[in-house]
Amino acid sequence: MIIQLAKNTDLSEKEDLKQKIGTFGIKVTEVRTQMGDYLIGIGNKDFDIRKIGHLKGVQDIHIVSDDYKLVSKKWKVKPTSIDLGDGIRIEDGSMAIIAGPCSIESEEQIARVIQHLKENNIKMMRGGVFKPRSSPYAFRGLGLDGLKWWYEQAKAAGIKIVTEVMQVSQIEEMVDYVDIFQVGARNTQNFNLLDELGKVDKAVMIKRGISGTIEELLQSAEYVFSGGNEKIILCERGIRTYERASRNTLDLNAVPILKSKSHLPVIVDPSHGIGIREFVPQMALAGVMSGADGIIYEAHENPEKAYSDGQQTLNFQQSALLAAQIRKTFALRKTFQLL
Amino acid sequence: MIIQLAKNTDLSEKEDLKQKIGTFGIKVTEVRTQMGDYLIGIGNKDFDIRKIGHLKGVQDIHIVSDDYKLVSKKWKVKPTSIDLGDGIRIEDGSMAIIAGPCSIESEEQIARVIQHLKENNIKMMRGGVFKPRSSPYAFRGLGLDGLKWWYEQAKAAGIKIVTEVMQVSQIEEMVDYVDIFQVGARNTQNFNLLDELGKVDKAVMIKRGISGTIEELLQSAEYVFSGGNEKIILCERGIRTYERASRNTLDLNAVPILKSKSHLPVIVDPSHGIGIREFVPQMALAGVMSGADGIIYEAHENPEKAYSDGQQTLNFQQSALLAAQIRKTFALRKTFQLL
Amino acid sequence: MIIQLAKNTDLSEKEDLKQKIGTFGIKVTEVRTQMGDYLIGIGNKDFDIRKIGHLKGVQDIHIVSDDYKLVSKKWKVKPTSIDLGDGIRIEDGSMAIIAGPCSIESEEQIARVIQHLKENNIKMMRGGVFKPRSSPYAFRGLGLDGLKWWYEQAKAAGIKIVTEVMQVSQIEEMVDYVDIFQVGARNTQNFNLLDELGKVDKAVMIKRGISGTIEELLQSAEYVFSGGNEKIILCERGIRTYERASRNTLDLNAVPILKSKSHLPVIVDPSHGIGIREFVPQMALAGVMSGADGIIYEAHENPEKAYSDGQQTLNFQQSALLAAQIRKTFALRKTFQLL
Amino acid sequence: MIIQLAKNTDLSEKEDLKQKIGTFGIKVTEVRTQMGDYLIGIGNKDFDIRKIGHLKGVQDIHIVSDDYKLVSKKWKVKPTSIDLGDGIRIEDGSMAIIAGPCSIESEEQIARVIQHLKENNIKMMRGGVFKPRSSPYAFRGLGLDGLKWWYEQAKAAGIKIVTEVMQVSQIEEMVDYVDIFQVGARNTQNFNLLDELGKVDKAVMIKRGISGTIEELLQSAEYVFSGGNEKIILCERGIRTYERASRNTLDLNAVPILKSKSHLPVIVDPSHGIGIREFVPQMALAGVMSGADGIIYEAHENPEKAYSDGQQTLNFQQSALLAAQIRKTFALRKTFQLL
Description:
- Four copies of one chain form a homotetramer.
- By secondary structure, chain A is an alpha/beta fold.
- Chain A folds into two domains: 2-62, Alpha-Beta Plaits (2-Layer Sandwich); 82-338, Alpha-Beta Barrel (TIM Barrel).
- The first copy, chain A, has eleven helices and 14 strands.
- Chain A has helices at residues 11-22, 50-53, 107-119, 143-157, 168-174, 191-197, 214-227, 254-261, 270-274, 280-290, 316-334; strands spanning 2-5, 27-32, 37-42, 58-62, 82-83, 89-90, 96-100, 124-126, 160-164, 180-183, 203-207, 232-236, 266-268, 294-298.
- The first copy, chain A, has an eight-stranded parallel β-barrel, surrounded by six helices. Chain A has a four-stranded antiparallel sheet with strand order 2-3-1-4, with helices on both faces. A two-stranded antiparallel ribbon of chain A has the order 5-6.
- In chain A, β12, α8 and β13 (266-268) form a beta-alpha-beta unit.
- In chain A, α3 runs parallel beside α4, α6 packs across α7 (214-227) and α10 (280-290) runs parallel beside α11 (316-334).
- The longest helix of chain A has 19 residues, at 316-334.
- The mean pLDDT of chain A is 95.
- At the A-B interface, α8, α10 and α11 of A face α8, α10 and α11 of B.
């Protein structure tokens, strides 16, 4: 049960309300985000909401039977729009393109990528400065220095920064330089990290877990929302299966299913989703047709020399071509009557 | 190693050739299809093909390191075109649409589906008369009678028949009434059935196994080809994973990968691939963008009353809309430079 | 619903009964096995069985809510014992050991294996004469000749034969030489084959599908039982997962779960279950402790020279050691109070 | 490549050595643990180790081709023994038993569990005070207070504490009260957490990831070891597959494979591995036979009233019986010649 509180509800009214609801055997969690105040009630599923609908402070009540509540479309039918400033948005009905290298490597590299993005009217850049690596001996990224170089150039160019945060202690040092915090596939269920990302007023893009279910992805988003941050983007990036001919199995089924269950925008990552450069464009366009609100892919001036993920990274020529194809495909999709 | 034999090679020349090759420690399998004669050599990978290239009867020799040989693109670069007659083809560069009910239910049902297909210029009809069911107590299909009713109407309407064959003994009784034999996902590795389908001159569409790899699908196709039948279509229909929000996980990665490895056409089945009616169109269009040469989906006048698979079956209005969208999406795809 | 018919029920009584039950909206399937006559009723789950319990011919009625009926423990609590003759049984409370090569290779090989089995008091021998191979160019077994050589020697030695049947047409030619028909992991849902195996009076061992669920294995067994054959053995042989360090993932969880759901005996195949010779003994003994009624493993005089599966095959010394360890482990297990 | 340094190597000698090795194109990582000093060399696989074997400070050099180095058996053949004090060890050749509730609930609950453990000579107790939960609204554990109550009672009783740490910031506040830090299945690839656990001198038990490979588990262990902590225990707890009849698929294949690849002890968790109380004992004993060095299972005075995981938790009577059976099974296993 979600109770949306009226804008002007004061503290004592809220406490009264919580106490009253508690008497019906319902456990209440209070949620305050950038956008509003909510009470989440768990337990006593047969509860008749008319018993509290008239109480002072209650603006609206919704029964949500899913295990996730605030991210459910059963409560909020209107799609969530993520406003990154400068007229840049990630939202249902538009097509976000996010491109950039796997790893941030140098100031020169950043400059060349930004140049490429500007030439192709791409407004968001991805790149890793803290890299999760399965081996402790592998390159772990340039860290905060890399992020600061990047920020300086991106800000000047009007380009938004999407980068992975790996642990709680990084949030504070990164927050001024990041537009979208990415939660990686190995951290989708790092609940402490999600809790803390609920406390910042920056967008958070949560990648589906390496073998995470659609339900778990939504519950992870619920952590961020219930922590206080409504600016959440979901990302399908492929799941682990028995198939070995591709790096992951891109599960595009997840796109319409997520869109039908949640009001949050959904992005597709074809680079990790198939892991083979030659086939990234096809899977990106398939992602557009499946209903995605955006595509995030890896691009590098010289993929063969990239520090990581070169085998799935497009060069600038391929990237330019793909960006145009994504836009044309999306334009066609908009003419269709799809859910 | 594949040795393509010259058209006019006589029996004794062929025997000489086989004996000669055998002396190099290579096991030879003879393959004769509708299109040509081949010798497949296995073993002795370091063999120098120049030793036999000049022999009488040898038209061409190809080294194919894959476990599948005749279906590999390493040997035959030109895409295979499946000609069903009446100008109807399944092939790279065109977009086949196959629609129809899960089960053939009655003569009246057939008539209504055919009417719908004609109105929408759809030339191929799917439907089951022999149904594989996990429970022995479930409806197992109308059998041969149903197929004969169907044949009569389809022939009159110029529509081609795609239907599943479940066992060897059915091939002979079905062959006169079928245009494309479908091998179901539970029979992808029924090697005896594949062997026998190699002996008929009808197209064979092999569905990927329930948890079959891309490699295994190609090896199953190799069975049919090496049995003597080159008219093979591959079908991605979703694989079994841990995810429970969809019936199967439609693996569209398989489309560009199959197309890059084999010269055979590839079809996508979004109905089984996601199993949820509302999302079949999105996944069909995603399949088109992934590079498929055709889409096969379930359609029924009244899906709620279908004998089986109703939850994933489109009604005629949805089907008409989808067929048009498939064509528009394919038209756009053809303007792109994709592999 | 399962209705067990009284022994002396005549045809007209049975027809009366079927008609009467049909009037309650229940679809009736008649099953006649070696052991008894049954009517299986599907539909109308709220039916009050007291309405027919008193009718002539009804010996017993059981409500079985599972999708499988006759193989369920909800109906038949007493474990099924498979009697192979000569005092050799596969059943709950004893420990069957089945050993032998992957492929039958020659009369000499058979002789040496039988000698080994006799020395170690092993009463059942496995071996393939029809081999399912993913490549059409691989060795497909010695066929019926091999089976006949084997039969002659096995019969003389009092050893029972376990071998795979791949298609319906083989059943008749094999039936006189086989004690247990094995249905391989690629044929677990070959429903026609299961139907036909329901018509013979030989034991049938069904291997779990390559990615088959426990539920599907029981439904496949239901095919054989409802076809008329109660002599069914279930075999856990590992499932396909993402893990690549072993050939399959041996799912020993399946053993106690199958034993709790069904009255049929359960066998474990550690050779295919892990696929690495050095670790077959540990997994065999783990299988015993998980509650298996038997172990089937691959043994060969010289595994390095075996035609197939050598990497997971024990030599005779290892096999002798393992057989003794299996027996000791089972003796210990019998002293425990396990389900 | 692993270079084990001589005990008395001083700083300048070590620097000389690092520089010298670097000249051969090898990237060197320095590792200092409780037990010794190492240099890990990555790159230049064809390097001839005789070129540095004679240098001052080098005690031993090993080539390790695996992606994990320090945890590999190729380097250190002798099994690692984890000494927890008071004569309590986890090591190859003995059988550790760890039991206790899913969640620590109260001081009274702790007292009763400890009483049960003492009566059954069980020396290690598991229990959660920080609980990872997929829903943000679920019970998240008693936290540090619960741990302190537990510590007081456990210390008095001579019982060791095994409990999950979820984030870096908890390590310092927990370290004085914990004997074995557990890394949960959702944190197996939380590399920052692993890094930090490398800096404490307490044992670390790493659970296999929810769909983690055996290789990834070893690489996660490598993080802890290369961070400076050799006291690592590996835990198989079931993986995520398509099978729905059990909570997870307990992959006992992992036990002999891990033991053959690494010198670290391996523990099996049958409670999470199957998730069904009635079958936990069978899977525990199967784990013993598969070669485990210990079993960790959930026990509670009254499982039906447990805050979490009640469905897979044994009561004290079942736990007492199982502990005895584990010991008897292990005693039998020791008489066998298994790898």
